Amino acid sequence: MEGIEHKTITANGLNIHIAQKGEGPIVLFIHGFPELWYSWRHQILFLADHGYRAVAPDLRGYGDTTGAPLNDPTKFTIHHLVGDMIGVLDAITKDGEKVFVVGHDWGAIIAWHLCLFRPDRVMGLVNMSVPFLPWNPNGDMATMLKNAYGEDHYMSRFQEPGDIEAELGKMSAETVMKKFLAYRDPDQIYFPKGKGFRYSPGDTPVTLPSWLSEEDVQYFASSLQKTGITGAINYYRAFRLSWELTAAWKGVKVMVPTKFIIGDHDLTYHMPGLKDYIVGDEFKKDVPLLEKVVVMEGVAHFVNQEKPDQVNKHLIDFLQKF
Question: Would you call 17 a catalytic residue per the annotation?
Fold first, then answer.
């Protein structure tokens, strides 16, 4: 990671840590759960070498970003998260300057809403793993997935404050990170009470995929050990409130040039109705400037880390159109 600069931005009541490298048009990278700026390490180096300024923050509740009230999930709504990104953009851009945005997982959710709320700040968008999910009058995502998959589904288990923290606290930070990052089953993640990860209970050893080193795991784990996981889990606990607060955007389309990338082994791809939505016509109706959907064969959730060279190629091909 030589040459990557680290600095802190004071914005939206937080001290937001960013990692950056390069000069040129700005590309804002927004990470997902349970990750860090470090998830974008391959993309930061690549784009810096190709004439771009790559900027990747640690999100609210993660890593070296501090100041979020971890005991209050209501401070983790989508409005807070987008507000944090606007604070970062205010600090790193000139007046009127638009940026490219790249998001994955929760970072994709934030990026969709950044484009929904503030399209004036975004030149183009590349999102991964989570498609745009228009406001649904039937309820929020956590409630609908509980109805579909039951009480043991990870989003259901994430709802009760302290519950999943106690479950994961029985394992080392290294084990927790390995079990999350190495997961590549199209099925959902379940946490039966008292058993931890259903697919890999307790301290069952995890074989790391080739794209993830022990050094990588240690970087994530050392941060998790320091911050705990409550901040990251609070995003899910705020789903209901975010749903209530975004009702005014019902039917609003994302009007930003967009490319979308997902792996066909990604558990998101196999959630109810999402595969048909992604590859069918409805996605394009909600994101009219969607230029391309890329479904990568044999690739799981952490697509930008698992296949960095392919993802980098998709990124540069999109960025160079502008």
Answer: no
**Residue 185 amino acid letter:** D
Helix or strand (DSSP H, E) at 277: helix 274-279
Cβ 101 vs Cβ 30: under 8 Å: yes
**pLDDT tens digit string along 54-67?**
999 999 999 999 99
The whole-number pLDDT of residue 194 equals: 87
Tell me the two tokens of residue 105: 């997982």
**Average pLDDT value for residue range 254-282:** 97
- Would you place residue 6 in the very low, low, confident or very high pLDDT band (cuts 50, 70, 90)? very high
Show the tokens assigned to 240.
């209901």
Catalytic annotation, pick one of 104, 153, 301, 314: 301
Structure pTM? 0.98
Average pLDDT over residues 145-150: 95
Indicate if 105 belongs to the active site. yes
Between the CA of residue 260 and those of 45, 128, 157, 238, 264, what are the distances in Å? 21, 6, 29, 25, 13
pLDDT tens, position by position, 278-303: 999 999 999 999 999 999 999 999 99
Which among 105, 149, 153, 154 is annotated as catalytic?
Answer: 105
Q: Residues 96-115: what's their mean pLDDT?
A: 98
Closest CA to 260 of 126, 80, 64: 126
Outline where DSSP puts E strands in 35-84: 53-57
Is 113 a known active-site residue?
Answer: no
Tell me the C-alpha distance between 322 and 8, whole Å. 30
Residue 19 CB coordination number (10 Å) = 23
DSSP SS3 for 292: strand
Instruction: Please provide residue 104's backbone torsions phi and psi, each rounded to the nearest 5 degrees.
Output: -140, 135
Catalytic residue among 149, 183, 236, 269: 236
